[in-house]
Here is the input.
Amino acid sequence: MSDNEPVAPVDVTKAWAATQDQKGAAKRLRIYAALAWVVAIGTEIAGIVMLKQHKFDQGNLALLIGLLVVIAVFAIGGSLMWKKANTHDPASRADGFRFFVQNQLGAIITVIAFLPLLALIFLDKDMDPKNKKIAGGVGVALALLATVIGIDFKPPSTEQYTQDMNQCAAQIKSGQPTTACSPEVASQAQDIARDSKVVADATKSAANPNGIDTVYWIASEKAGEKASTEHVFHLCQNVSTLRGKQVSSGTVTQAYAENATRITKQIPMEQGQCGFAAPAAAAAPAAQPASAQ
Here is the structure.
């Protein structure tokens, strides 16, 4: 967060994290995907057993192709459900291995579900050559189709969702069209925008009719880095909670970036300690002329 860095259109604030509802939806979809993949691999095993029993040496081509189609259908179904689950609860790019496996598991399982059976078909010396060519060709085509569908070419990540969430929050605060507010990030972006509005309302004065976008919080253990524990941010440095503490200050955006993600619950008290007029006190002078009549 260097001051020399170019200003980006998207604020880096609170890191996105899946809600319990999102985690629950992802878990259900992953269970269904796993069941579909079990059926696909089970069908493959059945095909291998039949090959070993020479069921396809001189016939049963339709049965073999049927088995390959079943494998493809369930492999593709599992991949689609798994990719949908990842949109609810994505992995982080910081863990490269997990990020790759989680997002490309559909393609990996598809290869496992097809490759051994296809290898045995092409290596089977007893199968009718014409049937082998037809079954092998169909199998390869289905395997390629299912594998391509299983690949996630634009996998979601917590980093991407963080960026989207912060852009969504910025659009809400500025009244712009909320083009970045996808269902996965919208609710949490609204929390950020809500806190920013509360701070602005609490710090309004004659000198600053729109409020002040500056808050204060206990400094992170390492300057410029996100704190290991969640902190509360306050309206000024003079509040009793921060006395004797090492304090950081900045916009609400910067507070979130350092894991100061909770706004104080003592806003009226802090308004008095910080010298901001409370709403009732600010409204009193306007009522005086009416009462004097």
Q: What stands out?
A: Residues 1-13, 279-293 have pLDDT under 50 and may be disordered. The two ends are 56 Å apart (CA to CA).
